[in-house]
Specification:
Mean pLDDT: 76
Radius of gyration: 34 Å
Order of helices and strands: HHEEEHEHE
Structural class: alpha/beta
Number of helices: 4
Distance between the termini: 64 Å
Length: about 150
């Protein structure tokens, strides 16, 4: 058996040619793209840079008076009952409005967290959100992680 092929048992292979012209073109295109886009990245000014328009900025008095952010948790259970606070006190809609007004007067940075059971009709959650919106506090809904 002659596994070498060809006359006299010698094999002839065609020379493999790899044309890298297209590869070089793509690399140069990417290089040009990155060079052009990197010039648009804004860098923060260093203190040694002279501003174009010198301005003497005043100090803010709000930083010293800033109050920390507090959470005001509202829980609506499956039956539609409203519970407030760490002690889970059951309250009516009117009492909820009073407690939110008190929380807003004590700390305007308070964030209202609304935790509603998925079985509660949306109308009940919307009612609680409307009362919370009247207090002018920030509102956030708490959701369970889907993982």
């Amino acid at each position: 058996m002659n596994f070498r092929g060809g006359p006299g048992g010698l094999s002839r292979r065609a020379a493999t040619v790899v044309d890298i012209t297209a590869l070089v073109d793509v690399v140069f295109q990417l290089l040009i793209f990155f060079l052009l886009t990197s010039s648009y990245v804004s860098q923060p000014p260093s203190p040694s840079d002279d501003p174009q328009v010198p301005v003497d900025l005043p100090e803010s008095s709000l930083a010293a008076e800033a109050q920390p952010v507090e959470d005001f948790t509202i829980v609506v259970d499956g039956a539609g009952d409203i519970f407030v606070g760490a002690n889970a006190d059951k309250v009516s809609v009117e009492e909820l409005a009073n407690r939110l007004a008190k929380a807003a007067s004590e700390n305007p940075n308070t964030v209202v967290l609304i935790r509603g059971d998925q079985q509660v009709p949306y109308g009940r959650i919307a009612e609680v959100m409307a009362v919370a919106r009247l207090s002018r506090l920030r509102i956030s809904a708490v959701l369970r992680d889907g993982g």
